[in-house]
Amino acid sequence: MTEETRAGFVALIGEPNAGKSTLLNRMVGAKVSIVTHKVQTTRARIRGVAMAGQSQIVFVDTPGIFRPRRRLDRAMVKAAWGGAADADVVVLLVEAHRGLTGGVEAIIEALKERGGDQPVALAINKIDKVKSEDLLALTQKLNDAFPFVKTFMISAERGHGVEDLREWLAGEVPIGPWLYPEDQIADLPMRMIAAEITREKLTLRLHEELPYQLTVETEHWTDREDGTTRIDQVIYVARDGHKGIVLGKGGETIKGVSTAARADLCEFLGKTVHLFLQVKVRPNWLEERDRYSEMGLDFKDGD
């Protein structure tokens, strides 16, 4: 008799930079969520699909939960809690070396208030950064603060403990047919994934506030007869001064971004990609409804 299939949604929640995107990419085995050293880089609820035996685990990679200041921030935090509410299982990711911060306490309080009958597991990430006795004390403190159904010690970056978490999730998602074709790893349109890859490269190259003042859109996608793909993208910035920063001296920054993004796109698509980037000033893009739709966010959530 064949084993029953299972499928369900798992929400990864936590503070910005807790390692949710790294964990998602490790679970799925491909780069579907952008990973940078900057906080708040995940905007849309990117879903990655991981297979574990007969189980299909669909990850909802939520934006980091933080205290929102702007419309974009508010829409991101609303999307994060929306992702958690829709999921079959919730995993709270906490950084081992930062411990029970005010931000983590606020998330735990919100989890208590929300109620809900989904199991909530704890994953303590970046365990290689602390001593084992500190890790045990933190585990105790977090489990005293909330009744987690299970605790995992992991290093998303190195892969430690990730398999145990995946196997447990495989048994927790409901019995039922798979939600996606077996070979599909993300439900974001390819145009959006391509835009996210370019935005990751921009975030890595640029500093301070600028990455949150720009967005990338894939304008044209042409699959050519010779098997290559041409991708045209526009980088929208909020001010004239930002355009010069993105271009760099003699176009050096934009060239570096384009080269790095193209390499990732070639690897991701398994074919030759020709990438063309333009930078345009759009002063109010942070207040434009269409830009939010492009990012998979609801404009109204920013109110």
TrEMBL record:
Residues 40-44 are annotated as: G2. It is found in: Cytoplasm; Cell membrane. Residues 125-128 are annotated as: G4. The keyword Nucleotide-binding applies. It is a peripheral membrane protein. Residues 206-283 form the KH type-2 domain. Residues 6-175 form the Era-type G domain. GTP binds at residues 14-21, 61-65, 125-128. It comes from the Bacteria. Residues 14-21 are annotated as: G1. Keywords: Cell membrane, Cytoplasm, GTP-binding, Membrane, Nucleotide-binding, Ribosome biogenesis, RNA-binding, rRNA-binding. Residues 61-64 are annotated as: G3. Monomer. Belongs to the TRAFAC class TrmE-Era-EngA-EngB-Septin-like GTPase superfamily. Era GTPase family. This is GTPase Era.
